[in-house]
Amino acid sequence: MGLHQQKQCIFTGLVARPIIDDRDAIEYYVEINNKRHHIILSSYAHQWPIDEEFFKSNKDIFYALLHNDNWFENEESTYITIDDLKELLKSKSFPKNPEEKLESLFLNLITYQKEDGQWITFETGYYDNLLWKLLYFKSVKELNYYVEALANRGLVDAKFNQTKGRPGLLDSYRITIDGLEYYLKITTEGENSNKCFIAMSFKPETKEIRQAIKEAIEETDFDPILIDEQNIESDKTINDEIIANLKKCKFCIADFTFHSNGVYFESGFALGQGKKVIYTCRQDEFSNAHFDIRPLQHIIYDTPDDLKQKLKSKIEAWIK
């Protein structure tokens, strides 16, 4: 437990199991969903819930990140500070505005549906004690507010318990036909898509690089999109198809080996759409990169296998 003991996890309130060593720190592990998380904090961290406004205002997010196994990558060596927590929020994906909260909630609600039109009721206590925490809401009242918003949009039918003539907590719900159509829309494009656009040179020499990128994407459960492998409708230009596919993708991988002009355009368009872009380049080609992209963090690789392994690690850490 280092030199300082903490009986409860400051992020979740769960029982903190001390880790004994000689660090001048608070050190413990907490078990969530049968996984043990290792927490190392400064000796002053027990005061964060009282003294640190940043911590207090984001505690619900830290709770959800831990419960959704979206925490620090190297837990056993990460000495968590307030600055580390600020960087964590910058690097992780979670609902940050009302529309994203609606989408996240809707995508969660539809997972309980086993057949179209099914009415769904949560187990006692799950909705009002846990679900709102897992979905990054600040309270069950906020969760209820967003369920009502989904109902008002016609995406769900919802029945609420009545409390003195006013709607109380959610009793049961079902996904409407409009909701099913909405589901198809949000899961085939944008942030909730499982697609990755690959921007790269199509020279014959890149065949092994192409295969390495595709395998890295597929082995991390995403669907690679290469424009020269798409069936382009006769009334569309290649540029139309590129833009349409970029809009549908969750993120983009831009390989600058051989420095195709198209890669600069496609990666720039993806960035302008607010999508994450992973930049890669073969070691012997990086010195020829345009000065605009040299300052950006690249995966520099020597072989296709090297690229594949580094890409898989990056996708797992930054995208998933």
Describe the structure.
It is a single chain. The protein has 320 residues and is α/β, with parallel strands linked by helices. It has 3 domains: 17-91, no CATH class; 98-187, Arc Repressor Mutant, subunit A (Orthogonal Bundle), CATH 1.10.10; 192-318, Rossmann fold, CATH 3.40.50.450. Helix content is 39%, strand content 19%. It contains 11 helices and 11 strands. The strands form 3 sheets. The chain has a 5-stranded parallel β-sheet with strand order 8-7-9-10-11, sandwiched between helices. Helix 2 packs across helix 3 (82-91). The longest helix is centred in the N-terminal third of the chain and has 15 residues, at 53-67.
Q: Encode the helix/strand succession as letters.
A: EEEHHEHHHHEEHEHEHEHEEH
CATH architecture heading of the largest domain: 3-Layer(aba) Sandwich
How many strands appear in the DSSP assignment?
11
Q: Given the helix and strand composition, which structural class is it? A: alpha/beta
- End-to-end separation in angstroms reads 31 Å
Largest sheet: 5 strands, parallel
